[in-house]
Write a structure and sequence with these properties.
With about 300 residues, the protein is mainly α.
Length: about 300
């Protein structure tokens, strides 16, 4: 599988790929954490869209998930069900379906798989990779997989599926990414590590991420990439992380961190566009989440 993300793609591809082309980041109905979805616009618990997603996310039968992937390829269920089902399948770490994922990935790369009109089976390569990597964690252990994934970052030899698994490797991965971000001298490498932190729910990264968002220049990060820190705080999704993002926004506004007109898009400034992204991904504004969430999030 060609998993290389180099140059501009390493900086832009992970965050700005279309949702179906990326490993799915979605969370709904988890106590103590905000809703988050890259597949939906303003997803809210209790809605038909959320209920439909939960059917897949709570499925415990690997075979049922694999059949849903096949059904999506045939066009008999929504296309977004395929990456969602593969994400859940990765979590289950089924030996048989890790092998099936490897075979399907090979067939996709060889151009032997077709999808419904307007959809590309290549969109599934990232979550198929995640299925294989999660099984590798079971077989080889987290330390070996973490070492391999971290070694792939400097040259950009990784993809979104790798990033998703890296985010699931917990505090050890987060600590390594934070340290490497701070130590990196090249801007491109800094942005890679910052982007990868956006796949982790580790709360120990909150102070650093808030400082980066408030003043990206002070860390050698161009302001246009400040949204990576915002993305990371949203994905952590606790009252602490969202409150930290609120305060960081105020510091950034006061410092003029994003005042450059070149950062504006669609007639709106950087902070305004970032506000829209918050609501799009979580369904609510930050102040609502801070009021609704408990002060201490449940441990995983």
């Amino acid at each position: 599988m060609n998993r290389r993300i180099s140059g501009g793609m390493a900086l832009l591809g992970i965050v700005f790929a279309s949702p179906a082309a990326a490993q799915v980041l979605i969370r709904v109905g988890e106590p103590g954490r905000s809703t988050y979805s890259e597949l939906h616009e303003g997803l809210r618990p209790g809605t038909p869209a959320a209920d439909s997603a939960l059917v897949v996310l709570r499925e415990t039968r690997p075979g049922a998930l694999w059949r849903r992937v096949r059904a999506a390829l045939q066009g008999s269920v929504p296309w977004n069900d395929a990456p969602l089902a593969l994400t859940r399948l990765a979590e289950l770490r089924s030996p048989a379906y890790a092998d099936s994922a490897a075979r399907l990935a090979g067939q996709v790369e060889a151009g032997k798989v077709s999808g419904p009109p307007g959809e590309s089976p290549a969109d599934l390569l990232a979550p198929l990779r995640a299925v294989q990597l999660e099984r590798a964690r079971e077989v080889r252990g987290d330390t070996a997989v973490l070492r391999e994934l971290l070694a792939s970052v400097p040259e950009g030899n990784y993809g979104v599926g790798d990033a998703w698994v890296l985010g699931r490797l917990g505090r050890a991965a987060s600590d390594s990414l934070q340290a490497r971000f701070l130590a990196a001298e090249e801007m491109e490498l800094k942005v890679r590590y910052l982007t990868l932190l956006g796949f982790s729910e580790d709360t120990s990264a909150i102070p650093l991420l808030a400082r980066v968002y408030a003043a990206p220049d002070s860390f050698g990060v161009p302001p246009r990439y400040g949204s990576r820190a915002s993305d990371a705080l949203l994905w952590i999704g606790t009252r602490s992380s969202l409150g930290a993002l609120l305060r960081a926004r105020e510091r950034a506004r006061g410092n003029g961190s994003y005042a450059d007109p070149a950062l504006a898009r669609g007639g709106y400034g950087f902070l305004e566009n970032d506000s829209s992204a918050v609501i799009s991904r979580t369904g609510r504004w930050l102040t609502e989440w801070v009021k609704a969430l408990p002060s201490v999030a449940p441990r995983h």
